[in-house]
Fold this protein.
Amino acid sequence: MFSVRRRGAARLAAAAVVSGVVATGAIAGAGAATAAEEASQHQGGASATLGGLSDKSDDAVIHGDKDKSVKAGLFTMEVDQGGTLQTYCIDINHPTQPDAKYQETPWSGTSLNTNPEAGKIRWILENSYPQVNNLAELAQKAGAGSLTEKTAAAGTQVAIWRYSDGADVDAVDPAAEKLADYLQKSAQNIAEPKSSLTLDPPAVSGKAGEKLGPVTVHTNAGSAGLEAADAAGAGVKIVDKDGKPVTSATDGSRLFFDVPAGAAPGSAALTVRATTTVPVGRAFASETRSQTQILAGSSESTVSAQATANWAEKGAIPAVSAQKNCAKGGVDVTASNQGDKPFTFELAGQRHTVEAGRTATVTVPVKEDQSYDFTITGPNGFQKEIKGVLDCKVASAGGESVKGEQSPLPSASPASPGSGNGSGNGSAGDSAGGTGKGGDLAATGGSSATPVIAGVAVVLVVLGGGTVFFLKRRKTA
């Protein structure tokens, strides 16, 4: 049987092939979409790059047919355009990928969507380290004697795994184990935190000469700046409900695209950007099958969200947006039509029609861990690309995805006790400076695909060389 790391590499290689096939089939003949025309599943908020497991981690053991040693603790992530995040993992047997890109994601787009105890994970985050940094007080509540940053982080991670994965896992340090037990027994279900920044809806449409919208801003920031990109060069302005131009917004602001009368059919994009602390308990998902994370702490960070507008004077005038729907095992594609004729489009081999003045949502089934890439086209050069990876379930020890409420088998390729090497949760031990680069990521499963990829590359080179040699021989003959 493959280990998690070997299976992870195989799945990565297979997924790359599937992704290429899907993308080719979807985009052929459609042309390339501009940045303003892409409809990704990022609903707004923070985007960050994984640094790795920090030095605030300690040993834990997953129990099963064979006990497996892992590292448990805090990860660090660097936010695009400024900021730092601390996270715990919520998929114990799923490897991380080196320097993976992550995006703030609603629970509905992760394995938490089917987990009835997801709210208890947020309670643990709110009531343990690093949110509670008085370790003496935390240790007293848990009856843990004394805690260090490493053992506090390990105990917190272990308690989270018991709810996120249903894992039979214990901390090696007695104080960390006491903390894990205390957190698990005390946890209560509390609601999912709101996003740091989203726009609703993320796509609008209408006729030239009108104010298109509204687009409502939802944010925990005190103020957000606005940046408009007018792809058609029509002189589009961002205005409030009274038609006055605006350059900033707050929570609840209703924004409109003011398109001049007589403007040729086109599109524009609005980017809203703010500096804020991301709410504890927000999930972070990757589009590269890297282990899902959940936020434990945030510095002041830059967050952003984008909305698009499409206009014309007559005919169908579509607006398209998309988001993952883990409950239905697919991607919800929402299409509205503010024109005077029906909007007909093809999606995943099916033909759909949205009548004038109506909105419809189509759920496209996608297999777990599968890459998808759909392109929707419409009149006047309209084009929207929808792409991503569906990652809605936690992985078992064998590398297969399972339901969030099921208990996983032990992680494969773990560290032997005392070795300091990591496994399924993503560590190869503590690194200087706590960034986790280098040694930490080597055992996360991210770099474990390297030998497989290198081997495939060598085979392809050999086959290519043999082909060239054969052709030369034929030419000489």
Remarks:
- The mean pLDDT is 80.
- The first strand starts at residue 47 and ends at 62.
- The two ends are 48 Å apart (CA to CA).
- The chain has seven helices and 25 strands.
